[in-house]
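Researcher: Here's a chain I'd like modeled. Treat it as a single chain, no partners, no ligands.
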Amino acid sequence: MKSLHRMTSHGFPLAALLFLAGCSTMAPKYSKPVSPVPAVWPNTPAAKSETVKKSEKPVANIPWQDFFVDTSLRKLIALALENNRDLRVAALTIERYRVLYQIQRADLLPKIDASTGAAIQRIPEDLSGKGKSLTTHQYSAGLGVSSYELDLFGRVRSLKDQALEQYLATEQASRAIKISLISQVAAAYLSLAADRERLKLAKETLASHQESYNLVSRRYEVGVSSALDLQQARSSVEAAKVDIALYTNQVALDENALALSVGSQVPSELLPTALSETLTALKDVPPGLSSEVLLLRPDILQAEGQLKAANANIGAARAALFPRITLVSSLGLGSDELGGLFKSGSLAWNFAPKISLPIFDGGSNKANVKAAEVSRDIMVAQYEKAIQTAFREVADALSRQNTIDEQLSAQQSLTDATNERYSLSLARFEKGVDSHLNVLDSQRSLYSARHGLIGARLIKLANMVTLYKVLGGGGE
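Model: Modeled as a single isolated chain. Structure tokens:
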């Protein structure tokens, strides 16, 4: 104690110890794990081309306002970003981790408290030693440092680094939620648009079947058509009514899902009536130069942040194996009279360093180090798994993008051919050279082809939304 007092009284010390505290930590040097996926996408033009146009911007750098150009969808996304409860929870979670980081960072500095006090005590006659009772007074005022740890081995600094990485990871998690919300609103918008088109198609088909039924009914009345033709025409009308009821219900469900994503009731003028061919200004989504574009995804950055936090925690666990120095000190004034508190000679101070050295703990500290190292290894595996999952998502979406145009073109040709077939079969039936069964068959085929065309268009547009999400589309 005397030697330590001698050191501090000659000026080394408290400042030097504070300097030494936090100079370094015992955490392992962080090294980003090697990406466990190929450098290029499989079976895509991007994988076969060695260069990408310099004008192409990775999707992760494209703000959603620039990607989605449909006016109604833009307004719905803006409403969702304002009202969605998941996004609010994410924002509050960020704030919570920011405050926790501030708390942990504050432990690097001494906490200085100001205090004043008074103690008045009556001593009984039997205990005073002077044959009479006494009343004593003590007054004090001062500043003090309570339990400040000199971070010589970086324990507190490691905990601060851990809290910082957790805070940054939470920010990335919020970005991921935001991008997911944007794509969720867009997907719900497209589903509603497609089902409204299907409902419209079902109504048009009902009108066509009803007209056909009326024609067969008149022919039946004059003995030209059979009862079988009449019942077949009637069954087609009833089947169309079933589809109308089905898609009327589906449209209502889609509207509810969209309202939930947006977080409020959706104004009717913002609801889509049909699939928009101008959903995005981009015809194709450039994935970037290589699969390294995945590292821009917020969920990957979140996983890496959690890995860095686990790495920092190893430093705190290792530092717990070494001595811990804690300082308690105070400087102030004291007197037995309130009026003499600020007179000369009233200076009082206290300096009480404490050193604790773990000697026997049953191996718990070493076990904590091992546990921290295993936790770090778990985070490495989770980080690598996140990259592999992201790679598969992007590869699937790119593969779908490469074939959807051919599928859409083939479906359009099928629809055109089926429509021509229906027109020919109807004309032959009206002239009495063909049966009504062929008309019904061509009607069903046309309905199925038009239904498939709506589905193919939905797949193409929905895949653009999927690519935007899985490539880490900018959420700003």
